[in-house]
Design goal:
Blueprint (H helix, E strand, L loop, with lengths): L2 E6 L7 H12 L5 E7 L6 H6 L3 E4 L11 H16 L3 E4 L2 H14 L2 E5 L8 H6 L19 E4 L2 H9 L8 E3 L14 H8 L6 E6 L9 H13 L3 E6 L5 H10 L6 E5 L4 H6 L3 E4 L8 H8 L4 E4 L5 H4 L7 E3 L4 H12 L2 H18 L2 H19 L5
Parallel strand pairs: 1-2, 1-4, 2-3, 4-5, 5-6, 6-7, 8-9, 8-11, 9-10, 11-12, 12-13
Helix pairs in contact: 1-15, 3-4, 8-13, 11-14
Amino acid sequence: MQVKVLHVIKTLGLGGAESNLLNLACAFDTSKVETHVAYSGGGEIEAQFQTADVLLYKYAEGEHRVKSLATMAIVYRLAKYIQRNGINIVHTHNFNAHVWGSLATCLTGVALVEHVHDQRYTPREELLRCHGALEQFKFAKYFRHLSDRVVVLTRKTADAVVRRRITTPERVVELRNGIPLIDGPVLDRHAIRQELDIPDEALVILTCARIEPAKNIQLILSIASEVRREASGVVFLVAGSGTHLETYRRECEHLGLTSVVRFIGYRSDITTLMAGADIFLLPSFLELHSVAVLEALRMGLPVVISTNVGCNDEYIKTGWNGYLCDPFNQRPWIDTLVQLANDAELRKWVGMNGRRTCYREFDIRATAAAFEELYMELCLARGGSKT
């Protein structure tokens, strides 16, 4: 019995939803799931999808807003694709895609899985305080009760969708992200440092994120000098692209921090960068379940991330397998980074515990198996026959 699933996503660019979908697509048992991926614009990881065992369908060129004439055409194309390919389930991965995918399921009658990778159900006041996007999520209320299952990444989101009557408790599934746990080739730390023009003796604190206000990159610029004073040889390496990349680069130059903070733009070889780093830092105001943090744990890097953000507090215990700091208070970040920078044995011990956590809790094969079970449950409930 094989279920045909159409994953609908906005683009195949850099982001947690996109990376998670790629990991899932590669982990599904092809005897159980035939994976289709519908998207509009390409992006940094489109080439990786093209080499995966999935069927790709580009439903539009470029990016489009929900409130635009393009919506009608996109919904029509998705509905036709569903009918033409005998799709059993539509699985949506970000808000625009959810709008288009859910309307297409209304036309075709297939089951709908809503995967909440974004902040659509975060209270408005919290989005304002944390520099999150507001505009598109105001339409979320119009699509409540359409999903057969709502998959969430955190307990907080699970509680929110029930409290706000987005769906009923029995339709909520809490299922966190996973990553592949197969060890790759041993990477040459010296060669990585040489390519980045970073001395072997430097202490590298790596951040991998979209360069947007909600990721709190400003904190790095605010604490860099003091961390460097208390822990000599520290270099902050920031990898990622986004709307504020050039703004932060200019500010970095203005503050005279170019020898301490390096913005290197988008890199597809995140694992390579992590092999050349000593600490992973992500001070986000808003996050659900960062794939980059999981990748850092897998590599044995001690992670320093935000408390009371996403599900961070659900699997990180400060001083054991990572560190949790308040994104609105600079001092804990400085103290934690200085402590780690000056204690190699502590970095090794915390990193080892983090790696164990990753292998125990975040194997993508277990995540994929849970989705396969969910898909089968929905198909059986609808009484559909599968190939």
